[in-house]
Structures are given as structure tokens and as C-alpha cells.
Design brief:
The protein has 177 residues and is of the alpha+beta class. Helices cover 30% and strands 18% of the residues. The protein is built from six helices and eight strands, in the order βββαβαββααααββ. The strands form four sheets. Strands 1-2 form a two-stranded antiparallel sheet.
């Protein structure tokens, strides 16, 4: 992300996503009701119809470029570093598999409102771990105790929260879930 004057530039790859939290105009609603999430980037996954169509169009001789919702049955992302048909690919699922844009924005807003000096990115990653554990039928502790390398239950996740237009700091948190 680059903020140059009043222009905001974003770049993404794979399943990363940039979401802007803003307020709708209007005085008849409280702040949390006016909060709105605006997705700034598109995910490069087979779930995105534009990406899926592009992949099928670019590989007309491949009878099965998408298998079980993944590129050649191996990877959900359609664009990633090093994808020479999936040699060694960098890519991950993560935050937006478990939270919608609106849910993530509301969680961060609520957290910042009650904890202005604490780290909202770390909080969001903690909420992600809890939700991922629950959806897999585990407690947070059970999920975190599964040995690394069990790809079904582990993934690298990074969350960055940038507060624009104020003197607040930027926060970043990562985990291997």
C-alpha cells in the first residue's frame, strides 16, 4: 500500500485483500452503524469468477485446469510468486476465509474503541485462530498444539491494520495457524 498525498495505491496477489473502513455520511446513526467496509482489491482465487474465466481461457488445451475448486487440484490461488504450473508456490488462505470484510472492519473498530493503545492486528489474528479452531472442531489450544506441517490445519496469516488520517500507528500481526 502506498499513500501519496490524498491518493491511496494498493497491490495484492493471491488471496490477500485490502479493505478500507470508512463512515457513511449522516448524523441520525451512531458511529458503529455508519461504519462501512469497502473492498479495494480482488482476490486471485478460483472463487473469483473473473479469475476462474481467465484461467480457463489461458489454458484451452488443459481439460482440467480447475479440480475440486483449486488450480490443478493443488492451490486455491490463481496468481502467486513462482507459479510455473505450481512449481514452488507462495500463497495462503486466511482471514477472509473466516470473516467477511464487514466483520473484520467491525471487529477492528470495536477493539480500537475499547483499547486505543493496544494492537488491533494482533487481536484480529487471535479472533481468527479462535474461529478457525472452532470450525475445525477444536479449542484454540488444541489447534495450536497440532504439530506444524499438518497443512490441513496450519496456514500462514498476516494482518496489517493501517489507520489513515490520524496520528495513530500502524499495526501488524502474523501467525502460523
Amino acid at each position: 500500500m502506498l499513500l501519496h498525498g490524498k491518493d491511496l495505491y494498493t497491490l495484492n496477489l493471491g488471496d490477500s485483500r485490502a479493505v478500507l473502513a470508512t463512515y457513511d455520511e449522516g448524523n441520525d446513526m451512531d458511529q458503529s452503524e455508519r461504519l462501512r467496509a469497502i473492498q479495494l482489491t480482488d482476490s486471485h482465487t478460483v472463487d473469483n469468477e473473473v479469475e476462474r474465466t481467465r484461467l480457463l481461457d489461458e489454458h484451452p488445451d488443459d481439460s482440467m485446469p480447475v479440480v475440486a475448486g483449486k488450480v490443478t487440484g493443488k492451490l486455491k490461488v490463481t496468481r502467486a510468486f513462482g507459479v510455473g504450473c505450481l512449481k514452488k508456490v507462495v500463497g495462503s488462505d486466511g482471514l477472509f476465509d473466516f470473516f467477511s470484510n464487514e466483520e473484520a472492519v467491525k471487529l477492528v473498530h470495536s477493539y480500537i474503541s475499547g483499547n486505543p493503545s493496544r494492537d488491533p492486528a494482533k487481536f484480529l489474528v487471535e479472533q481468527l485462530v479462535i474461529k478457525a479452531a472452532y470450525s475445525a472442531g477444536f479449542s484454540k489450544e488444541e489447534l495450536m498444539n497440532i504439530p506444524a506441517g499438518r497443512r490441513k490445519y496450519h496456514d500462514d496469516v498476516t494482518v496489517i491494520v493501517i489507520i489513515l488520517g490520524t496520528n495513530h500507528r500502524t499495526s501488524k500481526a502474523s501467525t502460523c495457524v
